[in-house]
UniProtKB/TrEMBL annotation:
This is Methylated DNA-protein cysteine methyltransferase. GO terms for molecular function: methyltransferase activity. It comes from Saccharomonospora azurea NA-128. Pfam families: DNA_binding_1. Keywords: DNA damage, Methyltransferase, Transferase. The keyword Repeat does not apply. Residues 33-107 form the Methylated-DNA-[protein]-cysteine S-methyltransferase DNA binding domain. CDD domains: ATase. GO terms for biological process: DNA repair; methylation. The keyword Transferase applies. InterPro entries: ATL_DNA_repair (IPR052520), MethylDNA_cys_MeTrfase_DNA-bd (IPR014048), MethylDNA_cys_MeTrfase_DNAb (IPR036217), WH-like_DNA-bd_sf (IPR036388).
Amino acid sequence: MRAPRTRDQAYRVRRLRTRVRSFGTGDDMNEELHERIRAVVASVPEGTVATYGDVAALAGASTPRLVGRVLAEDGHDLPWHRVLRADGTPAPHLAREQLARLRAEGVLADGQRVDLRRFRWRPL
């Protein structure tokens, strides 16, 4: 029987799995890119949103899918709700919670879509 993992050990295992899965896929996910993606997401201010593509471009990621993967596997402590699809919609499985969190910050949606012209984050 294996001993239970501590939180820190579980975190390191998740990070290692992310790197191993991306190895050889052309995604070039490494520790540095992972941390850059996390830093960009963390810097999206309250009351604004960014797209996965915006975050990927700022972090130097080859594809917005890497941003989604980082948020899914290691984004629990980030303002993940401020990252949307390119058309201003949340992922269907997160829509209710994500739109509620955005609404609490003053970001209003028209149905399921946030007006990116109005609420998109524009870093300097």
